[in-house]
């Protein structure tokens, strides 16, 4: 059964509260000891090339 929802309001841009809250989470965020965003660009590129080479090696070995 399809549900349709219409608005018969004479104005636009009205707010609809949906019960959104910013309560404390069960597991608060922890500080990251390592982040790829803190790496310099050449190190990021080197890491990306190394990961890519490893993945291509896995594909090459699987094709044999």
Automatic annotation (TrEMBL):
TM segment ranges: 43-63
Top-level taxon of origin: Bacteria
UniProt keyword Membrane present: yes
Alphabetic keyword roster: Membrane, Transmembrane, Transmembrane helix
Region annotated Disordered, chain positions: 1-31
Keyword field contains Transmembrane: yes
Compositionally biased residues, Basic residues: 1-25
Protein name as catalogued: Uncharacterized protein
Naturally occurring in which organism (per UniProt): Bradyrhizobium uaiense
